[in-house]
Each structure stands twice: as structure tokens, then as C-alpha cells.
Amino acid sequence: MPYNSKLDETLFSKSWENGDDRLTVSVHSYNKGTKKLQLARESKNAQGELRFAKLGRMTKLETEAVLPLIQEAMQFMD
User: Average pLDDT, stretch 12-41?
Assistant: First the structure.
């Protein structure tokens, strides 16, 4: 069965921004299935538009910023 965006439900989503980057913590459930945490990074390009970027490694500042968001997101995973 191919992916159907209509079946993908976002239960929680919060972001943290720092200059040219935005990190988003979200919880999703596909087709009423297991609730899963997602971490995403977006970076601004030369025109100032946010574009998806590989999350990769995180700095200590980024980690400290998203930890409370992860803890909050976990409440939506029960």
C-alpha cells in the first residue's frame, strides 16, 4: 500500500528557532498506528527561505533547546 498523506496525523508539533535554523519536534501517527517522534531541521537559504536540511549532529545549545520539547511531545505518545 503506498503512502497516503490523508492517513498521516500530526498529534503534536513545536519548533525552536536560532538564527538560520529551525528544529521541529513532532509526534505522528499513520493510519491510527504507533505514535512516533520526529525531529526535523530546516535551514534558511540565501533568499531567507526555510528549506529541509539533514538533522545530523546537534550542538549542545540545540540539544538543550529541544529536550523540553521532546519531554512535552512524549505526553502525546501514550
Answer: 97
